[in-house]
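Researcher: Good morning. I'm working through a list of sequences from a screen, and I'd like to move beyond sequence-only analysis. For each chain I'm collecting a predicted structure so we can compare shapes side by side. This is the next one on the list. No need for commentary yet; just the structure.
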Amino acid sequence: MEANEAHELHEQAEHGAHDATLRPVAFTMSVLAVLVAITTVLGHRTHTEAVLFQNQATDQWNEYQAKKIRSYNTSLSSDLLNVISVADKDQAAKIAKTYVDHQAKWNADLNQEQEKAEALEKKVEAAEARANRYDLGEALLEIGLVVTSVTLLTRSRIYWFLGLIFAAGGILSALSVALLK
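Model: Good morning. Structure tokens for this chain:
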């Protein structure tokens, strides 16, 4: 919700607030506007967190891919040494041993890199799930605010109660983020 929209709603609430029966409605609208702002900020921060985790996961997968390429190149070199005949058998054996050692190291590193990347992807999924809850909460709170504001125009309290129902759903959605792991 834009700042000018919130200001307009607040002005409408002030005009309607002269009627004492509509003061609770105006107060509710003010509280809902604050809750919308808080939920919006939390949602934006959570989306940013998801993007940062995604960048880290991408970097981790790139590291995995680089080590995979090194492992493959080492494997090709080792295979090549096995099929060609060389004059210095001792030197070839030393080189082959080095390649075997490197290959073992690459294999261990690949497993570690893959585990790190998968852990970061889980963090991305968790952050996106939290962000989705905040987004739903924000939408429901905004709907509640708008529906509640209709009370000022129609002087019918049914819209206030309907707006409170939407707002309660938005609050519950935003609070449900705490239940996610």
